[in-house]
Design a protein that fits this description.
Blueprint (H helix, E strand, L loop, with lengths): L1 H19 L1 E10 L10 E5 L6 E6 L5 E8 L1 E9 L2 E10 L3 E9 L2 H7 L7 E4 L2 E5 L11 H5 L5 E3 L5 E3 L2 E2 L2 E4 L2 E2 L5 H7 L5 E10 L1 H6 L6 E9 L6 E10 L9 E11 L2 E10 L8 H6 L7 E5 L5 E5 L16 E15 L3 E26 L2 E27 L4 E25 L5 E27 L6 E27 L2 E30 L4 E24 L4 E5 L5 E19 L3 E18 L4 E21 L2 E12 L3 H4 L3 E2 L5 E4 L7 E14 L4 E13 L1 E8 L6 E8 L2 E14 L4 E18 L2 E20 L3 E16 L5 E17 L3 E12 L9 E14 L4 E8 L7 E7 L2 E7 L5 E11 L7
Parallel strand pairs: 1-7, 13-16, 36-40, 39-42
Antiparallel strand pairs: 1-4, 2-3, 2-5, 5-6, 8-9, 9-15, 10-11, 11-12, 13-14, 15-16, 17-18, 17-51, 18-19, 19-22, 20-21, 22-23, 23-24, 23-50, 24-25, 25-26, 26-27, 27-28, 28-29, 29-30, 29-31, 31-32, 32-33, 33-34, 34-37, 35-36, 37-38, 38-41, 39-40, 41-42, 42-43, 43-44, 44-45, 45-46, 46-47, 47-48, ...
Length: 926
Amino acid sequence: MQKIKGLIIIVFLFSISAFSQKANLSGVIIDSKDKTPVYNSVVALLIPNDSILYKFTRSDREGIFNLKNVKVGNYILMTSNNQYADYVDAIIVDETEKKLGTIALKSKIELLREVVIKSGSIRIKGDTTSYRASDFKVDANANVEELLKKLPGIQVGKDGVIKAMGETVQKVLVDGEEFFGDDPSMAVKNLRADAVKEVQVFDKKSDQAEFTGIDDGDSKKTINLRLKDDKKKGFFGKIDGANQPFTDADSRYNTNLLISSFKGKRKVSAFLLNGNTGQDGLGWEDGEKYGARDSNINMSMDDDGNVSYEWASGNTDDEPYVDTQNGFIKNTNAGLQYSNKWNDKQTLNLSPKYNKQIYTNNNSRVSQTQVGETQLNENRSTTTNVNRGNFKLNATYDVKLDSINSLKITAKTNFYRTDSDEFTNGVTTGEGGILKNKQEKTFTTNSDKSSLFTSILFKHKFAKARRTFSVNSSWNILNTNSDNFLKSSNESYVDGEFSSRDDVDQNKIGDKTNQKFAVNFSYTEPLAKKIALQFAYQITYDKGMNNYFTYDYSDITGKYDVIVNSLSNEFKQTMITNRPVMKLSYNAKKINYSIGSGFGFTSFDLLDQTLDKEYKQKYTNFFPSASFSYKYKNNGNLRVNYQGATTQPTLDQLQPLRNNQDFFNQILGNPDLKQSFTNSINLSQHSYDLLTETQIYQGLSFRTTSNLISYSRVIDPETAKTISKPINTNGNFSGNFYFGYGFKVKKIDLNVNLNPSFSYNKTVLSINDKLINSKNLNSGLSLFLYKSKEKKYDFSLSNTFSFNRNSTSQNDEIKSFNTNNLNLNIGVYFREKWKISTDYNFVSRQKTIDFQDNLTNQLWNARLQRTFKSDEFTAYILVKDILNQNIGINRAIYQNTISEERNDRLKRYAMIGFTWNFKNSGESKK
């Protein structure tokens, strides 16, 4: 009995103790954005097991809340307010006084702004901006290029160059894979728009950066086209043919064929383009690689206000420049794309392509060059005929050896053949029209180029997360063989009177090889959950050989067998670079950054075999780099990049050889050239507001270059003969700014985009042994309006105004002009099946002191079409250049020269065409 009484007493005392263990909870509720108190918000405690309400209270006007006499234990704390999102957290009450501190609530409006709404036409997630293709209406059977022109923030230039958020797009992928190699134009020109489900725009990092998670600054603006699911089953394609009626054998024609077949993870696509209406045969990227001239760089500004560095004549195997926007071109372009994946471990991508172009153009060029107080005026006309072709093969094999090891092998080949002839007739005069020189020249080119590139990337992941090791080795070689003939008659005048004549009849034979081998080792070590360290070491070996021989024609033998020693040379170069690198990176949900540096130890060994002279140079460079990105909201990003990089002089610039292809504009090589070093910093930001459908993006960049490879020009003011030589200059810099603002006027369903831009460049050049500052200023403003209603109408209006200004320190004269480009596109549907569309382009160019005419031209096109059988068939009639005013005019300012060029253009013609879009016969339309 005593034991029972004792037990009752113990239980009673324990109950009193437990009852007495109660706590008070307190805290403050505020607005997460403006930090103001949140009044009258419910604060509740729930029991975790069954979510039954235990206690609740409300916050006062200061946002303070108190919950008294709370039993010790586990609870769920929840807040509720009709203007704010609920806040839920698990808490443990185990003390007498528990202060929860500040609880920040997000308003429902702000929360909605950050949610990725799947049904929106545009959505931004991380660094990727996505457009739902079906919300942007294009013609039946339109290609992807027409779709891109409708997307806010994306521009497609007249030369086919694509810009997204102000930056040039370098890659276009289809479902994450390359489409017919790495040429962006292949997908956008040949793939049907109605096959695309979504267009994604992002900065694609290098394979190494994607593997290690450490940003190496090597990224490319990329567009990924996600195909519709029903387009990835069976097959689909398009056949399009058009011809100019009622004409002779030289009528305009186009034939396009594209077919794609899908079976599981196997994808096969093939295309064939054949026509003579100027459709581009080589993509713009290939145009940069081939046919452009390789030395004597000039910074120029064109009609549209674009500032660029242009390689002018002077290469020893010089080829004619082919601009498919001008002249007349017959083109055949064919390609095959095969990709497959086995067992989710092996992936093969194979893409052969063939291209053939026959091109002709008449070019007339008027230029004015300021030399001190003297002005030289050149009037030149050139007729160009080109027959060229190339075969390319790209292959990629990616295999996962096991769960921690992978291997990627890439191979690219290109075989290129060019046969061409150029006939040039030029006259140069001075002040008052006093004759300085005359020239007639014929230059015939026969050249063969072959290139091979291979790379092997091995990646290994250790058991510890983010500890990785990789080895990337690459080798590429470019061989060029040329057999050229130069015939020219060159007359010099002094004070307008004939002085001398030099006739040239020569055969120029070139044999050039460039090869480069590089190996990069990389190891990453995690230091903390979000911090990692990267160690890398890169060694590159560059070797080049250029044997160039010039032979005079002999009247005795009737052959080109008299060697010209001053124009012949055998030259070799070897460059070895060792570059250790260390980087620290931080990766979190919102903030990512990396900072590091490398050291470059470069040695030049140049051997002039003809003169038996050797040039040796050694350099040590510091390569700092840093990147920072901040995701301040789900649909907003800020990114900053800094990088230091070197540029090596080319073999043609180093070789001490004189190029006399243009007798009055000759170029000498310079073996004493140094490598240049560039510091560049780039800042970019983009955001999209889903509720207001407003998009804002902007970018700011600044670049400064020491030892820039510029050109020294010695100009004889009497004969206007110029000798150019590459040199190094300092004090060069450039700055660029672009801004984009797009929004929708919802009351009238009108999309509006506004794009101002600004750029400034300063280049130091040498004229007659005197350093001169050349300054270029460009500002532009573009406005774009777009409105459409499915199967009713579509309308777009754009206007681009640009102002160009150039000055040099050799005199006080300022050269400037502005241009305006107006584009109007209208399409109207009748009974859903009929559509008439028209586009109008008006270009005006302001007259200048040097060119006294206001140049304007109007380009008006129209098309009538009728679709059949659910848009499977389309018949159409189109008329190009109704007003017959298509003219190729371009003005450019560079250094101390302003020029105006005119080119042949394809003028008014009409065509009748038919398109068949085919797909699986058993495929049902959604």
